[in-house]
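User:
I study polymers; will you set down one protein's sequence and backbone structure tokens?

Assistant:
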Amino acid sequence: MSGAELFARVGRRALGVREDLAEAARLLVAIAARLASAPFSVKGFRWPAAFRQMVRIGVESLPIVFLIAGSVGMIVALQAATQLRRVGATIYVADLVGVSLTRELGPLMTAIILAGRSGSAIAAELGSMKVAEEVDALTAMGLDPVEFLALPRVLAMMIMLPCLTVLADVVGMAGGVAVAWISLGIPAANYIQQTLNALMVRDLVSGLIKSWVFAGIIAGVGCYRGSAGGRRPRWWSRSFSSSRPTCCSR
């Protein structure tokens, strides 16, 4: 491959990324505008559709979130105990597990789980609706596809991801309690008290802000990938497969 061909390929890829970002930004602005105007519109907001999406995104994701969060909490506690035992500071395992989960690990691992499960599901569902020309049917009936399809999914994701993050933090800390009690002989009451002493309100708030941002990115990318594909099934499969790495790379 010559230098000119390499630069041409890089330039085409850069232009494609720029177009994707511009289209995604326009979609997010449209969703934000619909969300701000929904309480004042005559029709109001479609809460039944949003509640159905909350069940699909949040409630049905509880088993995998609990499994991963508990495993991560136990692994972090076990690895921290291996190092802290050398200096006789095993009680600080509670500090490390609690702060790391609430600040970073809880929001991050919950967002990755929902990006792979719900983000790709949103892209696949909207892509299949576009292939079946259901989106065109909504437009022909005078319904806004952004308000009718994208808005309930984005709102459900932005409500449920922070809730799942809090539950993941609690389950991860419970895994740390189990490891500390079984492997280190630390009573559960002492561990919980040490965790409460270590945690601050800003730790929980920072984790919730991160999860809220992750939720907007996951839902926005899923809606964009589902609506940006062509009408052929191969475009649908391409949008479905590209939604997960796009969410994670953001």
Observations:
- The chain is about 85% helix and 0% strand.
